[in-house]
Specification:
The chain is an alpha/beta fold. The protein is built from 13 helices and 14 strands. The structure holds pyridoxal-5'-phosphate.
Length: 396
């Protein structure tokens, strides 16, 4: 007989994340007329607010029904032509799926495999682009946060490498699990296409492809030959400027996005990033000092503030930990994907979260690990993390 589970389900997958009450309430709205004269008062200011999250003044924001994957497709098809050359580093499920999409859309993709647990190597970007005297590469891609392995790449160092090579390629950044949670500066870092979705740092249900594109990307759009239709920027540009859409927009989600962005801006982006860092640091200390386990991220410089992928000891199966957490403790953890399936479980610590919520993730992980034959000291991770949080919150 399954145990009857009451109380809230604990969601610690790295997205979808918790939806704050204010955001849920904003979605709960009676049907509105998408051609009404009132709609622009909702949509036009929303675009300006979303630009603040991407830290762009010169960029253009596009919001489509879809998800992060749709935002990839939109940026690719709107800026490139068949056979254009692309440089991408593959070190986890999402950089892998992105590479795969470039190939399926008919681009000439140089996929450079680097070990899972590391990220985009800026020095290699400089080497490859310096050798590309003919400027054949049209795009360099960075997965800012590889959600599968808990690895964050340094986007600024990639921009500096591109500048050092004096290369004109566009810079695409997948920020699906980083934008609105980890520092991201579109204009300052010279990012041309910044890609996100609604269900992670933006704290909404899944269902939106959210992106910001630079003037250079809009220029590339004018001559790009890949076919596009639903995700066309041209159609959006024509209608968005007056606050409308080329199709039926998801008004409740747009309203909810406005509420979520207000919450982020009210907390202050620097405070949002500091909160994510503090929470992540507690989790990392629990893993290393408490449980004596390791992270998938191979060096500190790669460690992500939004998700930790925790390696189980040799011979143990991380899938059992995830199954025990789900069935016994009403808690969802992130699974190990592809190369790291069975080897890691992931704690997502992004979005609308505080320290005590994440303490429950650590407590539940400890119970589930012990149920799965992983002999960690009970309470050891929770003790280390909570002491760290107590002290680091002292002066906040
Ligand atoms: C880094 C990253 N990129 C892309 C995606 C794909 O986004 P979506 O599932 O919203 O289509 C994800 C999803 O988790 C992701 O984490």
């Amino acid at each position: 007989m399954p145990r009857s589970l009451t109380g809230r389900r604990h969601m610690f997958i790295p997205g979808p994340t918790h939806i704050p009450e204010q955001v849920l309430n904003a979605v709960h709205i009676a049907t509105e007329d998408q051609r009404s004269p009132d709609l622009p008062s909702v949509t036009v200011p929303l675009y300006e607010k979303v630009k603040k999250i991407f830290k762009t003044k010169s960029g253009t924001v596009f919001i489509y029904p879809g998800s992060g994957t749709g935002a990839w497709e939109s940026c690719i098809t709107n800026t490139l032509s068949p056979g254009d050359k692309v440089l991408i580093y593959r070190f986890g499920t999402f950089s892998m799926l992105w590479s795969d999409m470039f190939q399926r859309l008919g681009l000439d993709v140089n996929i450079v495999d680097v070990p899972w647990g590391t990220g985009t190597p800026a020095e290699d970007v400089e080497r490859v682009l310096t050798a590309d005297k003919a400027h054949d590469y049209k795009v360099v891609c960075v997965t800012q946060n590889e959600t599968a392995t808990g690895v964050t790449s340094d986007v600024l160092s990639v921009r500096q490498a591109m500048n050092a090579a004096k290369h004109p390629a566009l810079l695409f950044v997948d920020g699906v699990s980083s934008i609105a949670s980890i520092d991201f500066r579109m204009d300052e870092w010279g990012v041309d296409c910044a890609i996100s979705g609604s269900q992670k740092g933006f704290m909404l249900p899944a269902g939106m492809a959210i992106m910001a594109v630079s003037p250079k990307a809009l220029e590339a759009n004018k001559s790009a030959k890949l076919p596009r239709c639903y995700y066309s920027w041209e159609d959006m540009l024509k209608t968005n400027k007056d606050g409308y859409y080329p199709y039926t927009p998801q008004i409740p989600m747009l309203r909810a996005l406005g509420v979520a962005v207000d919450m982020l801006l009210e907390e202050g982006l620097d405070n949002v990033f500091a909160r994510h860092h503090r929470i992540a640091e507690g989790v990392r200390r629990a893993v290393k000092e408490g449980w004596k386990l390791s992270l998938c991220a191979k060096e500190e410089k790669w460690e992500s503030d939004t998700v930790s992928a925790i390696c189980v000891p040799e011979g143990k199966d991380a899938r059992k930990v995830i199954a025990a957490a789900y069935s016994k403790y009403h808690m969802s953890l992130g699974a190990g994907l592809h190369e790291v399936a069975g080897k890691v479980f992931r704690i997502g610590h992004l979005g609308d979260l505080n320290e005590l919520q994440v303490a429950s993730a650590l407590a539940g992980s400890e119970m589930a690990m012990r149920d799965s034959g992983i002999d960690i000291e009970p309470g050891s991770g929770v003790a280390v993390a909570t002491e760290y949080w107590r002290k680091s919150l002292h002066n906040v």
